[in-house]
Specification:
302 residues; alpha/beta; Rossmann fold; Methionyl-tRNA Fmet Formyltransferase, Chain A, domain 2; seven-stranded mixed sheet; six-stranded antiparallel sheet; 8 helices; 27% helix
């Protein structure tokens, strides 16, 4: 089928590469403009832009996909189907009605509609998550679902382990959906709105570890935000210590306390204790705790 692909992230780039290897390869790829990223604020292209260039696909980097120029380029491509995956821009009329729109969403809808479904599933310690291919509508991830697949979330798995598996699954499901759509056999089922939960965008408050919560919940936050966003402890004086790896241990440590014992850095929660395994000092790179302790004094929590 003649397709136009809209996406931005690493997840979306993986899905794009899978579709590009089929007869449904996009005739146009749309993604946002390059932007400043990271601590160095270097200008970087979105992962989907890099993938499109590697694939030799026609590329449009649009600050507003609903703008007149972008809309004209998409219309000129004469798509039968628009494919949307982790795009990050709201699609409005008249683009919304230009063609059938299939959206790849990494959750088991109606659970975790919204901006951060993978992170929220890990934070909630869900045993499984998945991917849905749905029809994009004006509502927030509320359109009918055509295909879905499940992925188990291991008890010690972080975002970096779960997201790539979901992206691979998303690519396979999208190709299957396009094959069925071309055959005229793709069907959709409405979601149960009463069962919906919402995956709010990750904000600053989500990143700061709350030691008034149980250790199992704090560990889940660390896993959900590793390696792409990063959780942290606030130290005395407002400095931050990033926490990139942690696990619960059966050791008694007072809530809100950091303690070194047998070469381990232990963090008391309410209740329970975490053993910090990978940390990131301010302005530095992630490192094992033993390396951190060799070069830094025991930090004081703020």
């Amino acid at each position: 089928m003649r397709t136009v692909y809209l996406g931005t992230s690493d997840f979306a780039a993986t899905v794009l590469r899978r579709v590009a290897a089929t007869p449904h390869a996009p005739v146009l790829v749309v993604t946002p403009p390059d932007s400043r990223q990271g601590r160095g604020r270097r200008v970087s292209a979105p992962p989907v832009a890099e993938a499109a260039r590697e694939l030799g696909a026609e590329l449009l980097q649009a600050p507003d996909v609903n703008g007149e120029d972008a809309l004209a380029r998409i219309r000129a491509a004469e798509p039968e189907v628009l494919l949307v995956c982790a795009f990050g821009q709201l699609i409005r009329e008249p683009l919304l009605s230009l063609a059938e729109i299939l959206n790849v969403h990494p959750s088991l809808l109606p659970r975790w509609r919204g901006a951060a479904p993978i992170e929220r599933a890990i934070m909630a310690r869900d045993a499984k998550t998945g991917v849905c291919v749905m029809r994009l509508t004006a509502g927030l991830d509320s359109g009918p679902v055509a295909l879905r697949g499940e992925v188990a979330i291991g008890g010690d798995e972080d975002y970096g382990a779960v997201a790539p598996r979901l992206a691979e699954l998303g690519g396979e499901l999208l190709v299957e959906a396009l094959d069925l759509l071309e055959d005229g056999t793709l069907t959709f089922a409405e979601q149960d709105d009463a069962a919906a939960t919402y995956a709010e965008k990750i904000g600053a408050a989500d990143r700061r570890l709350d030691l008034s919560r149980p250790a199992v919940e704090v560990a889940a936050v660390v896993r959900a935000l590793t390696p792409h966003i990063g959780a942290y402890l606030e130290l005395e004086g407002g400095e931050r210590l990033g926490v990139r790896g942690a696990r619960t241990v059966d050791v008694g440590v007072s809530p809100g306390t950091l303690k070194v014992e047998w070469g381990a850095l232990l963090l008391g929660c309410t209740p329970g204790t975490l053993r910090l395994e990978v940390v990131q000092p301010a302005g530095g790179k992630p490192m094992p705790v033993d390396a951190y302790l060799r070069g830094h004094p025991l930090p004081t929590l703020g």
